[in-house]
Amino acid sequence: MSELRDLYQETILDHGKRPRNRGRLEDAESAVGRNPLCGDVVTVFVRTDGTTVEEVGFEGAGCAISTASASMMTEALRGKSIAESRRLFQAFHDMLTGKDQDEESSALLGKLIVFAGVREFPIRVKCATLPWHTMRAALEHEQEPVSTE
């Protein structure tokens, strides 16, 4: 478990300090998410061809966990079908909320498994899941801002 905790800390710090795919995407669906408890705000941009996620980007201000989660999410979703993206959202959410994972869900998560350590800090689960809820809202063309409350 110590190795996973070390990897968790290293990965969060790396993506928190040097987020990937940060920036606005033109001609993309977008949604805004807010975590009123800690002040995280994120806008997620998703460009699809109707069946596949072609590009994902984000803008916003948040803690290292929220930023790292958004960064890793953008990397994980590029090239996935919309259906796979929804399954990945569910697997990520289930992992962080302590629901049982089957082998398929665990395999689907890949590198995102490092976020399992967030479960040790329940107040931070909302930070990690905010970009994911916001991405789902963008895929569903929801207009109302997403809130973790």
What does this structure look like?
By secondary structure, this protein is an alpha+beta fold. The chain has one domain (2-143): Sufe protein. Chain: A, CATH 3.90.1010. The chain contains five helices and four strands. The protein has a four-stranded mixed beta sheet with strand order 3-2-1-4, with helices on one face. The longest helix has 18 residues, at 122-139. The radius of gyration is 14 Å and the shape is globular.
What topology emerges from the helices and strands here?
Blueprint lengths: L1 H16 L11 E7 L4 E9 L4 E9 L2 H14 L4 H15 L6 H7 L12 H18 L6 E2 L2
Parallel strand pairs: 1-4
Antiparallel strand pairs: 1-2, 2-3
Helix pairs in contact: 1-2, 2-5, 3-4, 3-5
What characteristics describe this protein?
149 residues, alpha+beta, Sufe protein. Chain: A, 5 helices, 47% helix, 18% strand
Please give a quick description of this structure.
By secondary structure, the chain is α+β, with helices and mostly antiparallel strands.
